[in-house]
Amino acid sequence: MENKILDINKLNVDYLTERSSINAVRDFSMHINENEIFGLVGESGSGKSTVIKSILRILPAPGVITKGEIRYNNQDILEFDESKLSSLRWSHISVVKQKALNSLNPLLKIKEQIIDTMQAHEQIRTKDAIQRCNALMDLVEIDRNYLNSYPHELSGGMRQRVVIAIALALKPKLIIMDEPTTALDVVIEKEIILKILDLKSQLGFSLLFITHDLNLILGFADRVGVMLEGELVDIDSAEIIKSGGNNAYTKKLINSIPDLSNYNQSKTNKNEPELIHVKNLIKSYSRHSSIFSSDKFHAVDGVSFNVNKNEIVGLVGESGSGKSTISKILTKLIDFDGGQLLFNGEDVSGITKSKDLLAYRKKVQMIFQDPFASLNSIHTVYHHLSRPILIHRLYNKHSKKERDEMVLKESIDILKEVNLSPPEEFLYKFPHEMSGGERQRIALARALLVQPQIIIADEPTSMLDMSIRMEILDLLKSLQAKKGISILFITHDIASACYLSNRLIVLKNGKIVDSGVVSEMINNPKDKYSKLLIDSCESGWFINQ
Amino acid sequence: MNRTWYNRIWINNKARLGIIIVSIFIIIAAIGPIFFEDPNAYIDTPLLEPSFVHLFGTTGQGQDVFAQTIAGARSTLFIGFGTGILVVLLGLIVGSLSGYFGRRVDNVLSLIINIFLLMPGLPLMVIIAAWLPPGPFSIMGVLVFTGWAWNARVLRSQVLSLRERDFVNASVVSGESNIKVIIYQIWPQMLSLIMASFIGATVYAIGAQVGLEFLGLGDVDKVTWGNNLYWATNDLALLTGSWWTFVPTGLCIALVSFGLTLINYGIDEISNPRLLSERIVKSRLPNLFNRNGSTPVARKLFGK
Amino acid sequence: MNTSVQYLLKRLGIYTIAGWAAVTLNFFIPRMMPGDPVSVMFASFRGKLKPEAIEALKQTFGFTDEPLLNKYINYLSHLLKGDLGISTAYFPEKVSSIILSGLGWTLLLVGISLIISFVIGSLIGMIIAWKRDGKLDSILPPSFSFISSFPYFFTAMLLLYFLGFKLGWFPIRHAYNSDLIPGFNIEFIVSCLHHALLPASTLIFMGIGGWMLQMRNNMIGTISTDYISFAKSKGLSQKRIMIWYAAKNAILPIITSFGMAIGFILNGTILTEIIFSYPGQGYILFQAVQAQDFQLMQGIFLTITLSVLAANWLIDILVLILDPRTRK
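Predict the joint structure of the above. Result:
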């Protein structure tokens, strides 16, 4: 029997409201052995962050632990007083969080933030502390000179390494990592995960790794727990979870892992005419490296591509690749600095008159990433749907009554098309009264009402729960086929791009690094980066070179 | 959640107290002056102390202080609220244009806003008011001219951040005109800030107006709160010890401003309830809760 | 440091434009007003000044029949030489020398009260936000906002009346005992401080609330940030988190907005000086208003504007030093 370092038994956590309380975590039990990697998986809101904050007792109000035990080395953390807790924190259990920039105090040097951690727990002379800082920097492979820098002077990957260095500062037995790589691109993600595994084998600690990315954790965890709505619904060795686990929800999650074998095999019809054509597109921003100084950087740096009629093109890139800038340029939300934008062969680069813009928007519509943000919280569904109808149809000749009837009829028809039923009920709902998937359908309906020739879909599924993503992708696919429109599908997720698109374009740092028909891209990607993206769909991808 | 906004303001203690105070003064301003024929009339010996005959005593000119205090409310509050509305309107228009259109429009308007903010308010008011014929509309004009920039700046930054939100982008993409986007999509989202700005501007207008009149830059023959204080110092209230000639008016000014400030507190608490969750835990678990301490464990209370 | 210098030059540019705008306003305001107030002004000189002197004034300040542009240039060149004209209230003294005589007093009053109220207000704000435990937090903010609802000069009148006039603890007017000859000796300095105490207390008393509320709100904002919760999980002491993590971050935006606040503070100072007959800019401005001395009023407006602009530039430099994110 292995030695349990952390043992959680029937933990219950409530969020108090004025009169009652919300049970955020219910009867949560698990343990972590010495030197083990435990992966805790769940969608946002499943309660995984609540659990780890409860372990350290840093869950802010209105959170209250109402039941259970959390035993560390056989002592119940829930019985600890403040002084015992502060000696437990960091010298025994430390944390690495998702947003490294936000974890670091912007006004203190890196050195000061490592040393104060040491000095809070042990008597140590500054000279010795600096020596240990140097050793830590070597460990995470950052130049020692950065000890005298401020957080904003480091890149995202470097900051995350600094936070890991701080977590290692007191050689804790258990390190909790809360989505430590989510904000990073795959290249950096790979480096960081490899570094963590390397450190673990050097120093020997247990790791509690929290993530929403089941595929990632299955690559290196010993055991995995799955959370759903505050409960641990499945817990087992990584192999068993990988093969479907012991629960229907685990199976659903496993099935929703992007699977490249299920890619879109229909190729583009070569005879379809070109709809959108961009040539050598350039857009630069002045980047504020500090609030006073700025230097130009090219968000989009000489990009050329085309989208044909009746075609779905996937534009794949990670955050910072320039893909959102392209979507805003194509929808004329922002201007660009160089290159050309052709629509139906006509140069629309410089149109500024409101009449021309209106005509362009009649043909080009957009769906946004976050359906909650793209609907105005103070307006009903009816308002959102009626505006495009009133703007783009010539209903002015009709009386107000006739116009209202026509708007109502069209709204109901479109709600049926995006599978929201009964449509009459949805018409007078406010955005907060609907689920994420329903809101995204409303956003899609609003775009379709304009009767455009192309829809620019900017990460339309990334804010949705994994289980709903496929439904939205299928809806997009069927509506595209039915209406014969084109879609430019912009995403960071190469698997869903392969599922939906006829053709792929891979974007990195504002440049196109690869493009081609989906099957070709999957089987022999021409570029190293796009190969890494394709590989990242396999679990354990970061270990194979 | 489903309460309307005025309901939510009303159930907030601070806001409710503020609304009651301000309403009382508005009622006084509306109907009070009816009861006094001419508050400037000489009615008794100058500088009588407060008594049952003259509740607040008499001024150095033998006028009834109570009558002057009541009568002064009308002009002061009228100019205060009127200026508040104009200042917010101007600030909203400039701020919206600047924040929404950005770039060159923003560069020019922001520069103008900053210049107005950098010029010291009271001396600027003085040099303008000194040249103008004295009267309520001159004062209103001066206050609007020197006071709009602060609101424009606050409202601009709100518009700037709303401008980046996707519901605004979505509205633009669906073909809505800029003016309609501003009016129907952006403004309704910033109602509480507009309301707070209006109240803040009114507080400013009352204070600055009283200050100007106190300097003798108003129409000194009119009965207003500022003029009451001007005449009190002019008649050497401090040296003669006749505190009653300035205390009632000063208290009224403070009460109105305080009432308005309370309403703003209420609006702020409602629109960003920062400490709400701590307050809930504290009221439900008074013995366990420690503000900067660790998460409370309440196994005995909840567990079985 | 190159970008910092660039930034400071850019700010200096903005302040120069603002200064120019103030000067231009000064020039145009009398000319844009309804009802020919300029004639009214010169009419008020009659009897006080010789006709030749009035003519000379008209020449210097461009109230002649010359084209507007010439007058404007003429006006600017006089200003650049530091010539603000001649006061009618203190005839025949120069406006510039009257203003200079009061500048020191105002700086003394504003300097002392600003520093003290800022330090005390921020400290109280920091503590009540960190504790946010009830008593202090439920008493201080509302009572200070009640206090700041009073007009400055009204509070000054109350203090002067009760502490100065009734109780006789403080002198009720002027900046020092007029029997003394100004000089650098203990007796004179003590007299100055004694005279400044009541007006300064008024300003401190009225000012604390604003700083306190700002600091409290900013602290509450920083307390919910990730780096505070990270610092807590690192097991740092409460004191270290409060001062070096929360307060340090909370105070920067206040210092950044300090420049804008100076204008408000000066308004209060001006009115307070008037009540205490304290011979600074405010009191002189009051004399000028009473005597309809337009040259003096405009001179004071320009002086105060230039001081505010200079203070803003100093604050820009301070922020540059305090916030590492602004340096490169």
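Residues 99 and 300 of chain C are 7 Å apart (CA to CA).
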